[in-house]
Amino acid sequence: RVFNFSPGPAALPESVLRRAAEEMLDWHGTGVSVMEMSHRSPAFQSIYEQAEADLRELLAVPPNYRILFMQGGAIAENALVPMNLLGDKRGADYIVTGAWSNKSQKEARRYCEVNIAASTEASGFNTVPAMQDWQLSADPAYLFVCTNETIDGVEFGFDPDLREIGRGEVPVVADVSSHILSRKVDVSRYGVLFGGAQKNIGPAGLTIVIVREDLLGRAHKDCPTAFDYKLVADNNSMYNTPPTYAIYIAGLVFQWLRAHGGVESIEGINREKAARLYDFIDQSAFYENRVDPRYRSRMNVPFFLADESLNAAFLAQSAAAGLVQLKGHKSVGGMRASIYNAMPLAGVEALVDFMRDFERRNG
Ligand code: PLP
């Protein structure tokens, strides 16, 4: 296997894939694959309950929050959040820190009034605006943030506490698609956390939504029933058939993470991985990262070659060295290394070694 720096769907722990392969034809003596099980069978119910319990433990999700296993991806949530949370309010507030939160606020405009409480678009999405400068509207249904901007490489290093700006009553909604489970999070600071699974959790097709119970039951009458958070919660994510195989793989990833010491332990490794890469980039005049160092993402590291005419050679030679999917997003250009939980430190070391060697040969 190669070191896969894909932003998503992304690398999964090899041991998880091996175990899934071993269990593919016959899960625990049932004689069937998990793919072939009824979602209501006792076998699948046990898989589901274990996955839910493990995720709750890993993220220390308080008892007054429900964990929903949904479909539609994070992009569907951009519509489902206003549909579920607006209630009798007219609008919501958005902090725009990159391509993904920008997409979220645009989608929300189809369903409600949108107030941009802060944006870093003018400076090229390279930082997180100070909370003291967030201009919340008078009575928003929620405040939306994307706490890790996968494309721009900008990460909130904190869980926003709106009490600090006197607005503790406003629920914070966070798109955590690309850094969930990579660092400790204080779930109690949020009303809703959501994310697609295909980066740090498992295969595409599964969307995790963690919602505070008092926010359930506000869905708009036009919200599809399959996406009404309350209905999904009341039916333990089985109102319709959930993405059973993706939930099973996610459950194996949760077990893998628990066996490796949980979120606190992986956070230490992620900090080390990111530091190795950023430290190398910063000491080099050949490579550059343009994000405010205080808000650099530990998961997605965009970087540029000073001489962009070398981009194609960099990509071809890195791939030949077994380091794949390093091309930056088309809207940003350059390179991007996504170093999620399943990327070992050895993968980052191999990348840094390659970058050093490439610089020596071309600098
Ligand atoms: N939000 C963020 C932060 C993402 O990284 C992605 C990645 O693809 C999305 C939303 C879109 O998610 P999906 O394709 O699962 O709808």
Automatic annotation (TrEMBL):
<dbReference type="GO" id="GO:0006564">
    <property type="term" value="P:L-serine biosynthetic process"/>
</dbReference>
<feature type="domain" description="Aminotransferase class V">
    <location>
        <begin position="2"/>
        <end position="351"/>
    </location>
</feature>
<comment type="function">
    <text>Catalyzes the reversible conversion of 3-phosphohydroxypyruvate to phosphoserine and of 3-hydroxy-2-oxo-4-phosphonooxybutanoate to phosphohydroxythreonine.</text>
</comment>
<feature type="binding site">
    <location>
        <position position="150"/>
    </location>
    <ligand>
        <name>pyridoxal 5'-phosphate</name>
    </ligand>
</feature>
<dbReference type="InterPro" id="IPR015421">
    <property type="entry name" value="PyrdxlP-dep_Trfase_major"/>
</dbReference>
<keyword id="KW-0032">Aminotransferase</keyword>
<comment type="pathway">
    <text>Cofactor biosynthesis; pyridoxine 5'-phosphate biosynthesis; pyridoxine 5'-phosphate from D-erythrose 4-phosphate: step 3/5.</text>
</comment>
<feature type="binding site">
    <location>
        <position position="40"/>
    </location>
    <ligand>
        <name>L-glutamate</name>
    </ligand>
</feature>
<dbReference type="GO" id="GO:0008615">
    <property type="term" value="P:pyridoxine biosynthetic process"/>
</dbReference>
<keyword id="KW-0963">Cytoplasm</keyword>
<feature type="binding site">
    <location>
        <position position="198"/>
    </location>
    <ligand>
        <name>pyridoxal 5'-phosphate</name>
    </ligand>
</feature>
<dbReference type="InterPro" id="IPR022278">
    <property type="entry name" value="Pser_aminoTfrase"/>
</dbReference>
<dbReference type="InterPro" id="IPR000192">
    <property type="entry name" value="Aminotrans_V_dom"/>
</dbReference>
<feature type="binding site">
    <location>
        <begin position="240"/>
        <end position="241"/>
    </location>
    <ligand>
        <name>pyridoxal 5'-phosphate</name>
    </ligand>
</feature>
<comment type="similarity">
    <text>Belongs to the class-V pyridoxal-phosphate-dependent aminotransferase family. SerC subfamily.</text>
</comment>
<feature type="binding site">
    <location>
        <position position="175"/>
    </location>
    <ligand>
        <name>pyridoxal 5'-phosphate</name>
    </ligand>
</feature>
<protein>
    <recommendedName>
        <fullName>Phosphoserine aminotransferase</fullName>
        <ecNumber>2.6.1.52</ecNumber>
    </recommendedName>
</protein>
<comment type="pathway">
    <text>Amino-acid biosynthesis; L-serine biosynthesis; L-serine from 3-phospho-D-glycerate: step 2/3.</text>
</comment>
<dbReference type="GO" id="GO:0005737">
    <property type="term" value="C:cytoplasm"/>
</dbReference>
<dbReference type="InterPro" id="IPR015424">
    <property type="entry name" value="PyrdxlP-dep_Trfase"/>
</dbReference>
<dbReference type="Pfam" id="PF00266">
    <property type="entry name" value="Aminotran_5"/>
</dbReference>
<feature type="modified residue" description="N6-(pyridoxal phosphate)lysine">
    <location>
        <position position="199"/>
    </location>
</feature>
<keyword id="KW-0664">Pyridoxine biosynthesis</keyword>
<comment type="subunit">
    <text>Homodimer.</text>
</comment>
<keyword id="KW-0808">Transferase</keyword>
<keyword id="KW-0663">Pyridoxal phosphate</keyword>
<dbReference type="GO" id="GO:0030170">
    <property type="term" value="F:pyridoxal phosphate binding"/>
</dbReference>
<keyword id="KW-0028">Amino-acid biosynthesis</keyword>
<feature type="binding site">
    <location>
        <position position="100"/>
    </location>
    <ligand>
        <name>pyridoxal 5'-phosphate</name>
    </ligand>
</feature>
<dbReference type="InterPro" id="IPR020578">
    <property type="entry name" value="Aminotrans_V_PyrdxlP_BS"/>
</dbReference>
<dbReference type="InterPro" id="IPR015422">
    <property type="entry name" value="PyrdxlP-dep_Trfase_small"/>
</dbReference>
<keyword id="KW-0718">Serine biosynthesis</keyword>
<dbReference type="GO" id="GO:0004648">
    <property type="term" value="F:O-phospho-L-serine:2-oxoglutarate aminotransferase activity"/>
</dbReference>
